[in-house]
Amino acid sequence: MEVTQMTESVLECHRANKVEQQVAFANVYEFWGNDLSLEEYVQWRMNSLHHQRATWYVGVADGTVAASLGVFPMHLQRDSKIEKTMFIGAVHTAPEFRRRGYAAQLIDFSEQDQQQDGVEWSFLFSDINPEYYARMGYQISDAPSVCIKPGAEQAYDTEAFQIEAGLETVKQLYTGNHQHCSCFLYRSDAYWEFLAAKHAKDHFLWLQEEGEVIGYVHCRAHDDLACLEDFAVPDHDDNSLAKVAATVSSLADQHGWNQVHGWFPDSQVGQPWFELPQRQTEITMWKSLSDQQLNSSQIRELSFFRHIDHV
């Protein structure tokens, strides 16, 4: 009797067309659908400013979108040079195609494709065991998360502002915040405009000393929780970071937020309302797509990434 041997489908990887994007967005609904219906969710993704920024890749097997991901354009400023960078998001494999290595194949294809456009670095934020991405050459940045609760006295004088009116000053403060860094996320004017439009309804506060604006804090609220999306102060020393944290704690008390989560550089605040737990999700990982590497100081500086840049 002749035995027929089953062969595994070959994955064909390419940039997604509009129809394939819709299928990919429908596939990821199982994880990120929230309270929307499937149809509403797909249309939301197709129309959102955030998802329109990305280049979407799919892996097709047996005529079906088996795997998908988005590549979001960013830039890294390293030693005063601005270098093209890709941020990978929404990596997904359909249930019937899992455990075949399809996601890894698609990531590899997207990296090679982006290299053709001069991209030198790849970043992602892992929600799974980071060893999975480590096998593909990604390295971990040991940046903690943060949990700030009400309970502190306000440290900086503050004044609320609208991001559209204050955007130019915010840009300057962000750049000044990183003046001593040799490696940080460079935000182009186009990217700043996108961030301002996306976060227009969030909470923005100027940080002031002796009547002078020296920084800002940006929080996004959802019911009784909030996220510290972004902030800037002249220095990253423990004293300045403790004052930022205290100001956020006071803001939480004013708005009735039980806690504020987000990303924060490692610091010695030492207060009962402040915690720096190790990140279990959204773990920053990076990979060089060239023969260049980050040095130990630059790897530490990746902890200055802000949650607003999460993809």
Describe this structure in words.
The chain is α+β, with helices and mostly antiparallel strands. The protein folds into two domains: 12-140, Aminopeptidase, CATH 3.40.630; 145-278, Gcn5-related N-acetyltransferase (GNAT) (Aminopeptidase). It has helices at 18-32, 38-47, 49-52, 102-115, 131-134, 163-177, 189-198, 238-255, 296-301, and strands at 12-15, 55-61, 64-78, 81-93, 121-126, 139-140, 145-148, 157-160, 183-186, 203-209, 212-222, 225-232, 259-263, 274-275, 283-288. Strands 1, 2, 3, 4, 5, 6, 9 and 15 form an eight-stranded mixed beta sheet that branches. It has a seven-stranded mixed beta sheet with strand order 8-10-11-12-13-7-14. The chain is globular, with a radius of gyration of 21 Å. The mean pLDDT is 95.
The domain count comes to 2
CATH superfamily placement of the largest domain:
Gcn5-related N-acetyltransferase (GNAT)
Tell me, rounded to a whole number, the average pLDDT.
95
Number of strands: 15
CATH topology of the largest domain: Aminopeptidase
CATH architecture of the largest domain: 3-Layer(aba) Sandwich
Envelope shape: globular
Sheet with the most strands, sense and barrel status: 8 strands, mixed
Helix-strand sequence: EHHHEEEHEHEEEHEHEEEHEEEH
Strand and helix map with partners:
Layout: E1 12-15, H1 18-32, H2 38-47, H3 49-52, E2 55-61, E3 64-78, E4 81-93, H4 102-115, E5 121-126, H5 131-134, E6 139-140, E7 145-148, E8 157-160, H6 163-177, E9 183-186, H7 189-198, E10 203-209, E11 212-222, E12 225-232, H8 238-255, E13 259-263, E14 274-275, E15 283-288, H9 296-301
Parallel strand pairs: 4-5, 12-13
Antiparallel strand pairs: 1-2, 2-3, 3-4, 3-9, 5-15, 6-15, 7-13, 7-14, 8-10, 10-11, 11-12
Helix pairs in contact: 1-2, 6-7
